[in-house]
Specification:
six-stranded parallel beta sheet; single chain; alpha/beta; binds farnesyl diphosphate; Undecaprenyl pyrophosphate synthetase
Length: about 240
């Protein structure tokens, strides 16, 4: 995030951006296979794209972005692919923690983090601690995250508390306590589903699907998606 070179396209209204953008990064494997590369090269390219797109989001002035990096279902993948993803996350955090701090960007992880390898949780805790007071932007990573598990975990906590809860009380028990709901969710690669991502929080999110594989999704694609968001009428159940 060193040089602010994000081109702003004319049709984008910078005063009407989503406050919280969430991204389901899909298509890394297909991106690699199409190029005759191993799947992990797709994740590596996907990881590099997190860096580029975060810079674009930062330059546009969006306050919060959440990337879905590893789901509770991704444990079904071969061990070397899983290890490769974890290595990428760990190296990324170690490499960029100073830069995030310098740019006043808070980094947060949510999901069942305690079940991840220790060196990975250590890298996550380091960057979370280092950037906890940063104010300009927040970047969240959902890792070992599943929407259903999150809801079930909250329900079990509520039962233990033996007290009827209202929405605010229940939301306090989710991983995302203190985070606003995502206004806009982008999923790359052409799949049109939400795959257990932020099930509770996405109740009124605007959804956007693009065929582009995540490693190829660029600043232009991002702004195209945001222009589409700006054409939506958000009614939240109301009539206008
Ligand atoms: C989905 O593509 C992608 C993932 C399951 C992993 C995403 C992880 C990263 C980009 C690395 C994370 C790095 C950081 C810094 C958080 P897929 O493998 O399901 O693609 P396919 O559907 O084409 O097989």
């Amino acid at each position: 995030m060193n040089n602010s070179s994000t081109k702003i396209y004319r049709k984008l209204d910078l005063s009407r951006l989503p406050k919280h953008l969430a991204i389901i990064m899909d298509g890394n494997g297909r991106w690699a296979t199409k190029r005759g590369l191993p799947r992990n090269m797709g994740h590596k390219a996907g990881c590099e794209n997190i860096k580029r797109i975060t810079q674009n989001i930062y330059d546009l002035g969006i306050e919060m972005v959440t990337f879905f990096a590893f789901s509770t279902e991704n444990w079904k993948r071969p061990k070397d692919e899983i290890d490769g993803i974890f290595n990428l996350i760990r190296d990324y955090m170690n490499e960029y923690k100073d830069e995030y701090l310098e740019k006043d960007v808070k980094v947060m992880f949510f999901g069942e983090l305690k079940d991840l390898p220790q060196d990975l949780t250590k890298a996550m805790e380091d960057i979370m601690e280092k950037t906890k007071n940063c104010k300009k932007m927040t970047v969240n990573f959902a890792v070992n995250y599943g929407g259903r598990s999150e809801i079930l975990r909250a329900v079990n906590k509520a039962i233990k508390g033996r007290k009827e809860l209202d929405f605010n009380g229940f939301e306090e028990l989710l991983y995302t306590r203190n985070l606003p709901d995502p206004d806009f969710v982008i999923r790359t690669s052409g799949e049109m589903r939400i795959s257990n991502f932020m099930l509770y929080q996405m109740a009124y999110s605007e959804l956007y699907f693009t065929k582009t594989y995540w490693p190829s999704f660029n600043n232009k694609d991002l702004q195209h998606a945001l222009i589409n968001f700006q054409k939506r009428k958000r009614r939240f159940g109301n009539i206008k």
